[in-house]
Specification:
It is built from 36 helices and four strands. The chain has 848 residues and is mostly helical. A hairpin with a 5-residue loop joins strand 3 (782-783) and strand 4 (789-790).
């Protein structure tokens, strides 16, 4: 298979075809017969695996690799699932005939597995060298022997040593047979010995990553790396998990060292193929939820310490280190939402397909109806009980959308049209042709805005009896945009935009072939609760933010080099960064985050990336000094502009004019009460922290308005001090209950510019909100599409770590800052002068 040029983390666009082919093949050979078995196989996503590990392969090669993945997994799961093989002797009876097929020894067994393997083997060996066949046969025989040994240990109750476990697990993970299939067309005996170290390291990384995330749910009879480490070292599972992650990092370093040793003559591409296989396997397992969202428990790992802040930080560090994927990214999962779940259910209903999945989506919506807010309640009722949708439902949405203009300005009317179009798709809401959005006045639109606009125009045209109001060119433009998914599960990572477009396409082109592929991706994008999230990834934004926070902690800093390599590798051709890997639309927010991190990590190593990023930002600056999110013609946002100041301020006099103008924009944008208009967040403290950090950075720029900066900072700090809740925390707004994320974003400003008693109370509140597993649960403050909140739980943990790290450093030089004596006292009229700045991470939320 070709390992030709491919962006790191890419996936072949042919993966859905391979997915369907693998399921059909397993059914044809009797490996999956019952509907439940077929659904379980489909959830494994072996076509997705093939597309990830061999993004440059042909469709036929992808299909073959997907079938191998399905076969190996189905056989392997037969030894682990309830009702499967239960003894070591039974293992022999199952595996020996399979080994005989690939070794050519012959077998009289007539099981479905043997028949399926014969078919696979005949298709696989065409054009391969005899030495490859022998190599594969040896690898498969080693897997069979290791599986037999593992089950014998289980029967005997033997707990393997770390050395025994690592040696056996390397074989039972079945990475080597799949890797051999992936590279069979380019495999030669020459240089094979040099790649053995890469094979072993690749297998270990995949196996240990599996073990690390499987450790979150202990199963009787199952022994993993965390279990072995906990027993040998006499530590809790939380500490054992952290030790396993450290082993994983060392193995990754050994992989890179081995890759360098591979001879250049004809073998360098093999090292690249193995690296692609490794990255792709891990990415596939994250996407298909093979890796559980629940990280290993920290119980028993939080030893008592005199310093409560350091104890809390230590528990949080152990949790966060487990969140770093082997590739260096932080692939947290977005929580499900009603909007996307309703739209997916509407699409499946319109297609008349996937009855089992329809029932799961319906159950998700029904379970959320009792506690739903007014907007979610309206969407659920429109979807599940459309007959109850009142004729004046469009008027009823006005109170729900009244705040749209505050966050989206002139686009508030368009947002209302989008909501009405959604209600039409869900429950048949009658639309008024006068509310249909006009054609775009400018071609300079973000990809998201363009698809949303085309989709809404199409819905209105169909629903109001004026189908020709949408031109033929616009119809083809919509389908062409949606067809160019770039190998992602969701188009541009966004379920809401993708589903709005797909439902629209289904309405005027039912049965369009791209809808089949899209549904396959959407099924994988669902969360474990059956619902659909807003985004299938925000890994670039999360990772850049996390890398900057990690730099401040000695225990986490060793991971930042790999994080930096991941961030740098995904810079787009225009110099910016997208919020998720594989997304084509770049944005100012993620670009600023990436530049802040790379500048702090190693400005010399990443000088070229930083210069390209600075040029991207310079081109986005508006005449008023502000910076937009997506396109230079868009309305400027406060948090984007603050991010641009933080990203550009370190880059010398070439950008001082831009920084000065952006600083003036921030100063002019502040309201008399010290607040700023929110853009991509619902949290006052989030915007204030981002602005204050930017103003702090702008002080060093020549000709800075120091008096204006001083006054604006004082007003912002006074606002936070005045709105601190009696419990010591902050909510999204002064009228909201306190939460961990809002408090973590307010605390750095108060610690710098506020009175000690406010910092003491806030720290105590934050510490009290830490969970047993080390995390800081909190309502989300990110919004998208604005003003709908969406939740990546790791964001709260990262901001909590940044805030507590600041307090820990102040604690070493100042008074006790976490034993609050009681309720917050009234704030002084003017906040005191700031303490020396120790800014580590800026504030703000992602620009979705």
């Amino acid at each position: 298979m070709s390992d030709g040029p491919a962006v790191r983390g890419a996936c072949s666009p042919w993966w859905p075809t391979a997915e369907r082919a693998a399921v059909a093949w397993a059914r044809r050979w009797g490996l999956a017969v019952e509907d439940s078995e077929v659904r379980r196989l489909a959830r494994m996503g072996h076509g997705r695996m093939a597309g990830r590990v061999a993004p440059g392969a042909s469709p036929g090669e992808l299909e073959l690799l997907a079938c191998w993945g399905a076969f190996i997994t189905l056989v392997d799961d037969g030894f682990d699932l309830p009702g499967g093989v239960s003894s070591a002797s039974e293992t022999r009876s199952v595996l020996d005939p399979l080994v005989a097929v690939v070794t050519g020894a012959g077998t009289e067994a007539r099981t479905p597995a043997v028949a399926a393997l014969r078919d696979l083997w005949q298709r696989t060996v065409v054009g391969t060298e005899p030495a490859w066949c022998a190599r594969f046969a040896a690898a498969y025989a080693s897997f069979a022997e290791a599986t037999f040994q593992e089950l014998r240990w289980r029967e005997e109750g033997h707990m393997p040593s770390l050395e025994e476990y690592v040696r056996l697990r390397r074989l039972t993970i079945t990475v080597e047979p799949l890797l051999l299939v992936a590279e069979r067309s380019s495999w030669t005996p020459a240089g094979a010995k040099d790649t053995e170290a890469l094979y072993a390291a690749c297998a270990d990384v995949v196996a240990w990553t599996n073990d690390l995330f499987d450790a979150g749910s202990e199963r009787p009879g199952q022994v993993g790396l965390v279990d072995v480490l906990a027993r040998e070292r006499g530590v809790g599972r939380g500490e054992a998990a952290a030790a396993a992650r450290a082993m994983l990092e060392e193995r990754l370093d050994e992989f890179e060292t081995a890759a360098v040793r591979v001879p250049a003559a004809g073998s360098r591409s093999r090292a690249g193929l193995i690296r692609t296989f490794l990255d792709g396997t891990v990415a596939w397992q994250y996407e298909t939820q093979r890796y559980r969202a629940t990280l290993p428990s920290q119980r028993g790992g939080r030893e008592p310490r005199a310093d409560r802040v350091e104890a809390a930080v230590g528990a949080l560090e152990r949790r966060l280190v487990l969140a770093v994927a082997p590739g260096g990214d932080l692939p947290d999962r977005c929580a499900s939402r009603v909007l996307e779940t309703s739209l997916f259910l509407a699409l499946l209903r319109a297609r008349g397909s996937h009855g089992h999945e329809q029932r799961q989506l319906t159950r998700y919506l029904e379970e959320r109806r009792p506690d739903a807010d007014p907007l979610d309640a309206l969407l659920i009722d429109a979807c599940l009980r459309p007959h109850t949708l009142p004729t004046d439902a469009a008027d009823a949405t006005r109170p729900l959308t009244g705040g749209l203009s505050r966050a989206t300005g002139s686009r508030g009317r368009f947002k209302r049209s989008v909501l009405h179009a959604v209600l039409h798709l869900l429950g048949g809401l009658r639309l008024d042709a006068a509310d249909a959005p006009p054609q775009a006045a400018t071609p300079a639109l973000s990809t998201f805005t363009l698809v949303n606009q085309l989709a809404v125009r199409a819905v209105y045209a169909q629903a109001t009896g004026y189908p020709h109001a949408l031109s033929t060119r616009e119809r083809f433009q919509l389908s062409d945009l949606l067809a160019d998914a770039g190998g992602r599960l969701l188009w541009e990572a966004s379920a809401s935009t993708h589903l709005l477009g797909l439902n629209t396409l289904q309405s005027f082109r039912p049965g369009h072939p791209l809808i089949d592929d899209a549904v396959t991706g959407l099924l994988f994008a669902r969360d474990a609760d059956g619902g659909v999230p807003f985004l299938d990834s925000q890994d670039m934004w999360n990772t850049a933010l996390g890398g900057l926070v990690f730099l401040s902690r000695p225990a986490l800093r060793p991971y930042t080099a790999r994080i930096g390599a991941f961030v740098a590798a995904h810079q787009a051709s225009d110099g910016g960064w997208p919020f998720a890997s594989g997304v084509r639309q770049t944005d100012v927010d993620t670009t600023c985050r990436a530049m802040e991190f790379l500048q702090a990590l190693d400005p010399h190593r990443y000088d070229h990336h930083l210069q390209r990023g600075a040029a991207y930002l310079a081109a986005m600056a508006g005449p008023d000094g502000g910076f937009p999110t997506w396109m230079e013609s868009d309305r400027a946002d406060l948090d984007m502009t603050a991010g641009a100041v933080l990203a550009l301020a370190p880059h010398g006099p070439d950008h001082h004019r831009l920084v000065t103008a952006a600083t003036r924009f921030i100063l002019d944008a502040q309201h008399p009460d010290g607040t700023f208009t929110p853009g991509w967040t619902v949290s006052e403290s989030s915007v204030i922290l981002r602005a204050v950090d930017a103003l702090d950075a702008a002080r060093a720029v020549p000709a800075a308005d120091l008096a204006g900066i001083e006054a604006a900072t004082a007003r912002a700090a006074a606002r936070l001090i005045a709105t601190q809740q009696p419990d010591g925390g902050w909510g999204h707004t002064p009228d909201s209950a306190s939460d961990a994320l809002s408090t973590a974003q307010a605390l750095p400003v108060v610690a710098r510019y506020g009175p000690p008693h406010a910092t003491t109370a806030a720290t105590a509140y934050l510490l009290a909100g830490q969970s047993e597993d080390g995390s800081f649960p909190s309502p989300p403050d990110q919004v998208g599409p604005r003003p709908l909140p969406f939740d990546y739980p790791v964001i709260s943990d990262l901001f909590a770590l940044a805030a507590l790290d600041r307090i820990s450093r102040l604690r070493r030089t100042g008074p006790d800052l976490y034993d609050a004596p009681g309720p917050v006292q009234p704030a002084p009229a003017e906040p005191p002068r700031p303490r020396p700045s120790t800014r580590v991470v800026p504030s703000g939320t992602s620009a979705r």
